[in-house]
Amino acid sequence: MAFKRSDKHAQAVGEQVRKLITEAKIEDEALLGIGIAMPGLVDTATGTVVYGRVIDNEGFTAEHFRPHLPADAVILHDSYAGGLAEAWAWGNLDNAFHISLNESVGGSVIFHNEVFRLEDGYPGEVGHITVDPGGEQCYCGMSGCVETVCSSTKLLDAGAQTMEEFFAILERDTKAAKAWDTYTDFLAITIRNIRALFGGEVILGGEVGAHMGPYLRDVWVKVENMALFGEHVKDYVKLSKQERHPVAAGAALHFIQEFLQDPGPQED
Ligand SMILES: [Zn+2]
What we know:
The chain has helices at 7-23, 78-90, 146-149, 153-156, 163-169, 174-198, 206-212, 216-225, 233-236, 246-261, and strands at 34-38, 41-42, 49-51, 73-77, 95-101, 105-111, 114-115, 201-205, 237-239. By secondary structure, it is an alpha/beta fold. It folds into 2 domains: 7-80 and 246-261, ATPase, nucleotide binding domain (Nucleotidyltransferase, domain 5, 2-Layer Sandwich); 92-239, ATPase, nucleotide binding domain (Nucleotidyltransferase, domain 5). A hairpin with a 6-residue loop joins strand 2 and strand 3 (49-51). The radius of gyration is 19 Å and the shape is globular. Bound molecules: zinc ion.
């Protein structure tokens, strides 16, 4: 079900949520809330999508969905949700940067196992760092952003339907191998820049991170060739631990973490 700017779409989302809750046999009263993660910058204070060009959702708030949902709802930036899920899966990330390598590229900064957020600002927007000056035009108005060279579509354009299929044909398909070579050239530059800025672990997530498995070594080799300060790349370039539906898991974790921090009045 593709996103549409309409009440009919919000209603369809509500119906899917209702179906899921019924199947899971959960009472409405037991729901802490419903997290909705979307591509686009979300104002932390108001929960409004203030910049949404990937799926045309600018101006959206949770109010759009609330009439169709059985519990409180909140809209979260998808890369923030991905970071939440990653921190939860590791449990001990002191200083890390999580890159969401999906159709759109996002990132989140994790300090002391918490995703860094600002009331006024959007940290972690690695997708819009320039790595290919004069390269392809990005929707943000600049050209050669990480978004334009490390999007999962750059790999799928080689002729695969899914990331699983792409990595299955990679060994024997020259077009796929060429796409991977170019992709990892830019990913390595991106990783090097992130490491120079934050000095912590760089975690490769999203659809690409979840499927690259043994091909992580190709990334290691390229980063190693331009490694900073003689550091050992294997020590800090790692794959995500939250392979399955990280964005959805992170959206749910928003409410779970709130609850764990303040469970409310306890029954005797
Ligand atoms: Zn951009």
